[in-house]
Amino acid sequence: MATKIERAGERNTIDRRVARTRGLLQDALIALIPEQGYAAITVDDICQRANVGRSTFYTHYADKDALRSATIEAHLRSIGRRREAASQETGSRLFEFSLPMFEHAHAFRPLHHALLVSSGDTIHDELRERIRRAVREELVEKRIGDRAMPAEFAIQFIAGAFLAVLAWWVATDMNLSPAQADDLFQRMAGKGIGA
Predict the structure, then answer these.
(1) Less packed terminus of the chain by CB within 10 Å, N or C?
(2) What global pTM score does this model have?
(3) Does residue 159 fall inside a structural domain?
(4) Are 145 and 154 a contacting pair, CB within 8 Å?
(5) In sequence order, which residues have a C-beta less than 8 Å from that of residue 64 and are 6 or more positions away?
(6) Which residue range is the domain that position 28 belongs to?
(7) CB 75 within 8 A of CB 5
């Protein structure tokens, strides 16, 4: 099971010790979410898992929610790097965010399972909003879909469908690779918005 965020390039922008400590704290949070659920995790739990003191934690983050936001941002940067690499390889894919998300969910399956089944959790809501934003950017940038359909309707439809499929795929033991799951999503999404 993968429990560490791919952080290529981050160490060049901040002090190595700071990057290492933040990485330990973020990785601790990632490891704890599937075990306890985000709401039940305390700063003490995170510090114990990361093997750092509370004062060190508070040197880097104001609270658990600030760590959560930084962790999500680190994951999104990781996914963004995969997305850029995938878009260079595939060129004209309908929704470029989906394959890197399926790959990331596959690599971090227990984490994504915990995130996707905890509806109503703030971390789940933040993930849902990030997906909506990615869909919105791609629909607007590529001018995809039926012009008679309100753009926000299409955004909600695609984001909701993607999250439902992702949650189902993560929760089941389907023998679908990330690429196969993405291919099915791409075909259904394209039909759904008339692309």
Answers:
(1) N
(2) 0.69
(3) yes
(4) yes
(5) 29, 41, 42, 43, 46
(6) 10-63
(7) yes
